[in-house]
Automatic annotation (TrEMBL):
GO CC term, one of those recorded: cytoplasm
UniProt keyword annotations, A-Z: Aminopeptidase, Hydrolase, Manganese, Protease
Molecular function (Gene Ontology), one example: metalloaminopeptidase activity
Cytosol aminopeptidase domain boundaries: 308-315
Protein's name according to its UniProt entry: Leucyl aminopeptidase
Record family assignment: Belongs to the peptidase M17 family.
One Gene Ontology biological process: proteolysis
InterPro entries for the chain: Leucine_aapep/pepB (IPR011356), Macro_dom-like (IPR043472), Peptidase_M17_C (IPR000819), Peptidase_M17_N_1 (IPR048816)
Amino acid sequence: MTDFSSLLQPDRGQPATPIHVVRPEEFASWLGAQPPRIRTAVAAHSLTGKPGDRAVLPGDASDTWSMLLVCDEAMSSPWRIASLGASLPAGTYRLAQGDVGGAGLGWMLAQHQFDRYRKPVGKPARVLLTSEVASIEPTIRLAEATAMVRDLVNTGASDLGPAELEAAVETLAARHGATVTTTRGAALASGYPMIHAVGQAASEARAPRLIELEWGDPTHPRVALVGKGVCFDSGGLDIKPSAGMRLMKKDMGGAAHTLALAGLVMGAKLPVRLHLLIPAVENAIAGNAFRPGDVLDTRQGMTVENTNTDAEGRLVLGDALTRAVEHRPALILDFATLTGAARVALGPDLPPLFTDDEALAAELIAASHAQADPLWRMPLWNGYDDMLKSDIADLVNAPDGGFAGAITAALFLRRFVPPGIAWAHLDVFAWRPTPKPGRPKGGEAYALRAAFAMLSDRYGGP
C-alpha cells in the first residue's frame, strides 16, 4: 500500500511552493491584490476565474513559483486540491491562504495507486505541509482505510475469495491485538444455514464461512459491524447476464467497508467493544447450488422461501445479523452492495441509509455533511412489509414485481434485528464508474468517513 505518512507533514517553516486556492466569487478581488507579474501570467493563460482554472505563477526570483487553483469546493471537502496532488511536480507544498483542513485526505489519495496487476507508475512524492499537526495521523488513517477498501474491491475474485478475506481480517487483528473466530464446514451448516446455503456450491478452496473479529474492553458499549462478503456473485441458478456479472468481484464491498471501519475504530482506540462479522461466500453454480423455491432455515429460527438466488446478500447478512444480536450490542451498522434498485434511485455516489432509529439517523446524516461524505435517508416503510409474505414459509427473500427493491431488501434485514437495538443499513455501490480528482475509476469507499465520524462523536476517544 502507498506510504501515506510521507505525503502530509508538519509545517515548520521549511521551504515549500505556495498553492493559492481561490473561490470563483473571490477571484477578481484576489487578482486585483496581486503584483503585476501575477496579473500578467493570469492574463496570458486567459483565466476568467471559473472552477478548474489553474496556472503556474512566477515568483519573486527566477527559480521560484506558485500554483493557482480556482475551486468551488467547500472548505470541508477532502477533494478541494486533489487534482493538484495528482499533477504537480515532485516537491513540497503549502497552502498560501488558510490551512489544509480535510483537503489533506484527497491530496494523499490522489497519489495512491492500485498496482497489484501492473508495474506501478513511478511518481515521486508530492508533500503537503500543514500547521494542524494533530490532524496528520487521523488523516493518514483515513487515507489508509479508504485505500484498503479500494484495493480489496479492485482485486480480482481469483485472488480474493473467502479464505483471502479471512486472511485480511487476521492481518488487521494481529495489528491491533484483536481475536478472530471463523466458523466453517459442518458448524456453519448447522449454525448459519443461510450462509452455508448460499456458498455451498463453491469449491472446497472457496468454502463459505463466517469471520468474526472482537476487540476492546468487554465493559465498553458493544458495536457490531456487519459486512456482506460475497467474493463473487454469479447470480447462482438465477444467473446474471455477462454484463451484470462483469463487476461482481466488488460484491464483497460491504465487507471491505466494515474491515476498514474496524481498523479506524481500533486505530483511534475508541472505547467500544468491537464485533466485526463478515459472512464470506462465493455465489457459484454447481449441482449442489441452492435453488429457486428452496425453503431455507435461518439461525434466527424463521424460514425463508428463496425466490431468487441472485438475492443472496440479504440471506448471508440475515444469519450474521442474528449472530450480532445475540450479544445485545448497543449499535449495529451493516454495509452491503445489496441492490441495483439503490443505484437506480440514487446513483453510484449517494448511498441510501435505512434505519428506524431517529437519533442514529440524525447522527449519521450530520456526520455525512461534516465529512463531505454524503448519505441519503430512505424509508423503512411498513406498508411494503407485506411484500415479503410467503405462501409456504415465514417470508420470501425477493418479492415479485421489483418495486421498491432497496426498501424491501432493508425490510428483510430488519426482520433479523429486534426492536430496542439501534441498527442502520447502508446500501453502498463500492465502485466509482467514472474518475474524479483523487477518486479513480474502480473500487471506492462510500459513507466510510461518515460512519467513523458518527462513532467517534457518539463514543468519544480514550
